[in-house]
Design brief:
The chain is α+β, with helices and mostly antiparallel strands. It folds into 2 domains: 5-186, Ribosomal Protein S5, domain 2 (2-Layer Sandwich), CATH 3.30.230.10; 193-317, 2-Layer Sandwich (Alpha-Beta Plaits), CATH 3.30.70. It is built from 10 helices and 14 strands. It has helices at 84-97, 126-146, 152-162, 166-171, 206-219, 230-238, 241-247, 253-259, 262-271, 294-306, and strands spanning 5-24, 30-49, 55-56, 62-69, 107-108, 110-116, 174-179, 183-186, 193-199, 249-250, 277-280, 287-291, 311-317, 323-325. The strands form 3 sheets. Strands 1, 2, 4, 6, 7, 8, 10 and 14 form an 8-stranded mixed β-sheet that branches. Strands 11-12-9-13 form a 4-stranded antiparallel β-sheet, with helices on both faces. α1 packs across α3. The chain starts with a strand and ends with a strand. The structure holds adenosine-5'-triphosphate. Adenosine-5'-triphosphate (ATP) is lined by residues 74, 76, 78, 83-85, 120-128, 130, 165, 203, 206, 282-283.
Length: 326
């Protein structure tokens, strides 16, 4: 019997070491000056083609998807066609079908399996990592069944249509992101950084946090955009975690903390454990605590999950970009 064909890729969550949020643009996005760092907390996405799969020459090749949660499961079912991994597979197939001479090619249907270890709606780009892994896996599926392979640059362009963080999740490492955050330049870093990530409550919608920052800025002129990434860039070249800790910054933090008052309590509790620094990760509500080493990060996670946080993990940055897994 012929067994199923599997295409498996892995992508990683991220933390923003600097998140400068400028004015809202006419397209609704805010101008960003951000420094992303991927951390080794993986999202693993498999595209599984059954040996007796149907072949289709139009419409979605995805028949179903399932997510295995190693973090708290959201109330809403996310295994739907709106899932970023599902949309990523559809987008790669559509890009292929847009090429000349591909009309006659019928591709086999597949199912998507996701192993999720990044918090859902936590500000760590878990969904974007799923999209990145699905893009890379779909590219290998296309190579196998249609002998066509898109370049990484094209995959990143397709990824940008799905979400502003997706291109960075494809690239990984440490990078400066401008524009919507999808105009990327790799950055030089030395050493490794140990993080404790904890989450205390229901996720925040990224859009809500950006809108709240706009409202707060109307009333508080001190909340100016911090678009200069020079200090974090210099500290990363030096590789000293204490200097990096001093340079961490997130313009969205004030808005995230107001929307989730419990975050302040978790922050206060966390400071008692002497992390080098505590910041809100991206749009929150995950708290990212930079620690001295792995053991320190584990102690912080253990202490906070025993008291104020309901889930947490240790992760090291930087992590690689999206890659295939055997
Ligand atoms: P970011 O840091 O990029 O803003 P996030 O970590 O805050 O992202 P995600 O976990 O990526 O948030 O997802 C936010 C929402 O998007 C979820 O509540 C869910 O409804 C929807 N979603 C779509 N695809 C996915 C996916 N693959 N994983 C998780 N959520 C997804």
């Amino acid at each position: 019997m012929i067994s199923a064909q599997r295409f498996t890729a892995r992508a990683y969550g991220k933390v923003n070491l600097h998140l400068g949020v400028g004015e809202a643009r006419s397209d609704g996005y805010h101008e960003l000056a951000t420094v992303f760092q991927s951390v080794d907390r993986p999202e693993t996405v498999s595209l599984v083609v059954a040996s007796d799969a149907r072949r289709v020459s139009h419409g979605s090749v995805v028949e179903r998807m399932s997510t295995d949660f190693r973090v708290n499961e959201p109330e809403m079912d996310i295994d739907t066609p709106t899932n970023l991994a599902w949309r990523a597979v559809d987008a790669v197939v559509e890009a292929y079908r847009g090429l000349p001479g591909t009309d006659h090619v019928a591709l086999p249907t597949l199912s998507i399996e996701v192993l999720k270890t990044v918090f859902v709606a936590g500000g760590m780009a878990g969904g974007s990592a799923d999209a990145a892994a699905a893009l890379v896996a779909a590219n290998h599926y296309l190579s196998y069944y249609a002998q066509h392979h898109f370049s990484e640059a094209v995959l990143m362009r397709i990824g940008a249509t799905l979400g502003a963080d997706v291109p960075f999740c494809v690239m990984g490492g440490t990078a400066l992101g401008t524009g919507r955050g999808d105009n990327l330049a790799p950055m030089l870093t030395r050493g490794e950084f140990w993080w404790a990530f904890v989450s205390q409550q229901e996720g925040l919608s990224t859009g809500t946090v950006f809108e709240h920052l706009d409202d707060m800025r109307h009333n508080d002129p001190s909340l100016v955009p911090r678009m200069d990434t020079g200090r974090i860039a210099r500290s990363l070249v030096g590789g000293d975690p204490i200097a990096v800790a001093g340079a961490l910054h997130n313009d969205l933090q004030a808005a995230a903390v107001t929307l989730h008052p419990n975050l302040r309590r978790t922050m206060n509790e966390a400071m008692g454990l002497n992390p080098l620094r505590a910041i809100v990760s991206g749009s929150g509500p995950t708290l990212a605590l930079l620690c001295e080493n792995r053991e320190h990060a584990q102690r912080v996670v253990d202490a906070l999950t025993a008291t104020v946080a309901y889930e947490g993990f240790v992760a090291r940055g930087p992590a690689p970009g999206t890659h295939m897994v055997d």
